Amino acid sequence: SCSKVLISTEAFYNHPELIHEVAPDAHIIVYFRDQLELVESSYNQAVKRAGQKAPFSVALKRVIQKKEAFYTGELILKWAELYGTKNVSFRRYETESFFNGNIYDDFLFVLGIGNAVSFKQPASKINVSYCPEALDYKRCLNALIEVVDVPVLKALSGLAQDYFMRQVDTALQAYSHDYFMGGGGKASLYSPEELKEADKFFAPYRQQLAEIFGFRSGKLFRQSYKLKPRIEDPKVKLASVEEISQLLIGRIRGFESVLVKGVSEGVFSSSPLTRAAALEFSPLLAKARFYEAMLGRLSEQDLGASWFNDQQLTHMAQGKYQEPDYLRDIAIQADRRNKPELAYKLISRALDLRPNGPRIIELEKQFAEKIRR
Asked: Choosing a second label site near 180 at 20 to 30 A (CA), which of 2, 107, 112, 243?
């Protein structure tokens, strides 16, 4: 008995021909986001829920090389071709273009519902985007979790992998919410060069959409992309690895055991992305459990059970070692085992903590030279 029936799901988006076959007289409502933001948002979501391990720069290159219709807007043109532009409500996904400045009222407006007294907008945001530190952490964890066999993960945490990662996602969303509520701002994932290249790539597609859907100004979006490039502070990044690790250890049963296994195995992985992720988490190697796991992993490889000399081991047992000492000596052992990138990462962290240590300064120069060769 209703005059209008709304059917909505993201699963329709890629199947205009099928939907047109089933419902040829439907009116289509589509929201389209600035491609520069869309690529970032999709990447954030892929890291959160789809196990994305590659850095943003790699994901961006794939989008541009494949000219994916989802991002260019060409898929929307297929809908317009089948249904006609008069039967497609093209809405710009930006606050400046929303009716009453929000998407809830805008959607009701498109449906022709002008007075929805009983409808209340949600007080809090659902599906919070990760803050930069949480995004980096989850991307690395996606890579490291692959070296932890599913039965092993279940034994360590008592949880299936999908449920384990859902708990991680919930915790990182809460962390990100606190970050943004505390004044932390969003930053671009693009480098200045990448942003310029991507903007040039998407410009013709924006122009085409503007013309087809009748935007007289010729400009598709009222506001241009305006996030500032992210400036990484190595000290902040390293501190966030430890902070987030402690948060997850406190919230998720067995997380520490899983992380120890992932880092100690990840350093020796044949996958460059997994090895890189293990290096991102290298500050943890100075922690007791990670240190012990790494020692055991090296011993398994028949590289010699005696990792340190007796004096070093005595100092460790007596509590005379601090984090820079562990990092320095682990870096030396990593170098001896032909792991120059790991050695440099570890010694760089040690240098941050003890900038005037002569031996650390000497080793940092030595390992840097090896990497440059």
From this structure: 107
Enclosing H/E stretch for 91 = strand 88-92
Both structure tokens of 38? 């869309």
Q: What tens digit of pLDDT does each residue of 292-328 get? A: 666 666 555 544 444 676 677 777 777 788 888 888 8
Per-residue pLDDT, 79: 95
Helix, strand or coil, per DSSP, at residue 89: strand
Amino acid code (one letter) for 166: R
Is 203 a residue whose pLDDT tops 80? Answer: yes
- Exposure string of 61-97, with b = 16+ CB inside 10 Å and e = fewer, is eebbeeeeebbbbebbbebbebbeeeebebbbbbeeb
Q: Which two tokens stand for residue 244?
A: 């987030």
- Dihedral, 259, 264, 266, 269 alpha carbons, nearest 10: -150
pLDDT 10s digits, 38-78: 999 999 999 998 899 999 999 999 999 999 888 999 999 99
Contacts of 248 (CB under 8 A, 6+ apart): 168, 171, 255, 259
* Rg of the chain over all Cα atoms, to the nearest angstrom: 26
- Beta-bridged to residue 28, according to DSSP, are 88
